[in-house]
Amino acid sequence: MSKDFVKGLTVADGLNGSGLRVLIVHTRWNLPIVEPLVQGAVNTMKSLGVSESDIVIRQVPGSFELPFATQTLLASAKAAGRPFDAAIPIGVLIKGSTMHFEYIADAASHGIMRVGLEAGIPVIFGLLTCLTEDQALERAGVGKGASKGHNHGEDWGMGAVEMSLLAKKGA
Ligand code: RBF
């Protein structure tokens, strides 16, 4: 491992997202943390050439609803002849005092993976599963400390463009 190793995603070079259509589905649970994540994904995709009018944003109540909504919206867009190239379901789960966190995190992550594999479209894992609210804020780039942390939505936006191009290009 190099001395200047920095944990996280290495930026991919030469990504051109022009012409790509991307679906973002986000939760209203933990909205103040979800909103900067959505904004981070949108900003990054636009900086890579994706047109704002090609980014469709829809809401659901909570993370448990993300797989169903993503699957349904991908299918209806395809049926209407305007298929998406990728989807980014975005939600923030924060551990509470019961087992809810574990059940929702497990169901949502497996569901999100399944939707992508079944649709044959890259579906990015835009879920934060945090032990505390502070952890979640830092991972949305709006931390309370001197360093605001890192906005993972930006990585998800870049991932959506990179994976869309990979899927289009094929082997
Ligand atoms: N949804 C989230 O996206 N993040 C959460 O942290 C979250 N915590 C929840 C905690 C409890 C006790 C309950 C009942 C629901 C929670 N949900 C959360 C909502 C869940 O994903 C879903 O919207 C609802 O359970 C309705 O299906």
Describe the structure.
- The protein has 171 residues and is of the alpha/beta class.
- Helices cover 44% and strands 15% of the residues.
- The protein has a four-stranded parallel sheet with strand order 2-1-3-4, with helices on both faces.
- It has one domain: 3-Layer(aba) Sandwich (Rossmann fold).
- Helix 1 packs across helix 5.
- Helix 1 links the parallel strand 1 and strand 2.
- The protein is built from five helices and four strands, in the order E-H-E-H-E-H-E-H-H.
- It binds riboflavin.
- Riboflavin (RBF) binds next to strand 3 and helix 3.
Secondary structure blueprint with pairings:
Blueprint: E1 22-27, H1 31-47, E2 55-60, H2 66-79, E3 86-94, H3 100-119, E4 126-130, H4 133-139, H5 152-169
Parallel strand pairs: 1-2, 1-3, 3-4
Helix pairs in contact: 1-5, 2-3
This protein binds riboflavin (RBF).
Protein name: 6,7-dimethyl-8-ribityllumazine synthase
GO cellular component, one term: riboflavin synthase complex
GO molecular function: 6,7-dimethyl-8-ribityllumazine synthase activity
User: So, the CATH homologous superfamily?
Assistant: Lumazine/riboflavin synthase
Please report the number of helical segments: 5
Which ligands appear in the coordinates?
riboflavin
Could you describe the largest sheet, including whether it forms a barrel?
A: 4 strands, parallel
Q: Give the second-level CATH assignment, the architecture.
A: 3-Layer(aba) Sandwich
Strand content: 15-25%
Number of domains: 1
**Helix-strand makeup class:** alpha/beta
Share of helix, binned = 40-55%
N-to-C order of helices and strands: EHEHEHEHH
Family: Belongs to the DMRL synthase family.
EC number: 2.5.1.78
Catalytic activity: (2S)-2-hydroxy-3-oxobutyl phosphate + 5-amino-6-(D-ribitylamino)uracil = 6,7-dimethyl-8-(1-D-ribityl)lumazine + phosphate + 2 H2O + H(+)
InterPro entries: LS (IPR034964), LS/RS (IPR002180), LS/RS_sf (IPR036467)
